[in-house]
Amino acid sequence: MLRRFVDGFWNEDVWLPPNTTWADLAPGPEKAVVYTDHRHVFVPIPLALVFITLRYLLERYIFAPFGRSLGIKDRKPKKPPPNPKLEAAYKANPRARPQQVCALAKQLDMSERQVERWFRLRRCQHKPSTLVKFCENVFKCSFYVCNFIFGLVVLWDKDWLWDIDQCYIGYPHQGITNDVWWYYTISAAFYWSLTISQFWDVRRKDFWQMFVHHIATIALLSFSWVCNLHRIGTLVLLLHDCADIFVESVKAAKYARYQKLCDTLFLGLIVMWIGTRDYIYPFYIIWSTSIRAPMLLPMFPAYYIFNSLLVLLLILHIVWTCLILQIAYYAIKAGQMDGDVRSSSSELSDSPGHSNHSSPQRNNKKHE
User: Fold this and answer.
1) What is the pTM of this model?
2) Domains plus CATH for the chain?
3) Interhelix angle for 230-255 vs 178-197, to 10°?
4) pLDDT per residue as tens digits for the range 302-313
């Protein structure tokens, strides 16, 4: 039964172009080119654990000391006073309803405001400090910088970087080089690590959008690897990394309270994001995969799955573009970039109108 399911899932009519078999794409010394090995799609998973370990070491021994040297505090949220009955009520429902707050206030001889404040402080216990958020963003920014440079070096002498039609000409008999193999594997491992660590990282409002983004990216990398569509996959990776550099650096500068640097980077983010995610990606990548590809090679079902995932990423780009432009609008009104980029806190701090993920107010800002 299992064998029948596996054979049905990997049906050549679904995954490969017409008149092509898995034997045709199987790597071997007698083949004219070096084909991708479908078994290597699992290599990034253990490598993701290496990334998580590396991140832990870098954040603890390099990024955290660097953040402290910039004056970033590792301040823990204030603890609420011990109260067994409120603790039991919190465990039953962390977000108490007004009726429950009123009943607890009468039962414990407290004001409703005191009960609400206790619940608010209790919810804040799981929130990371500014230093933790800073370290997370610096790590991601460092990876995107390194991976973008690596990808640029790898693809600079590849003909499909300059002529996207080369992604399809000669398909599926396109060989893979060692540098492209490493670029693909490292990128996939990083997104696997983000998917795993997202459940204990800083939780933002766009948690599920990011989760869908990571899963879609991993699926894209896996499908394109198995179907030997790695050329278009490398272009998508390179295009995404350059904008993500600005996303993470803006957040890090905000947490470090370098407001002028933050504003400058945020302007660069708007230009880079709109230029790559909202212009080059749909009008160059998506147009190529949707219009040019059917002209140059016969279509097959897996290709439509691959292209649908690319469109899914575009939809997420549009959602995040709206959030970024919203932040830009309020930044222009306030005279500075305020709040988190691409997402924001789902909780408010005790200070009225002040987000837990926002940095201190204007009079405390550092200036370069």
Assistant:
1) 0.80
2) 11-71+128-364 (no CATH), 84-126 (1.10.10.60)
3) 50
4) 899 889 989 988
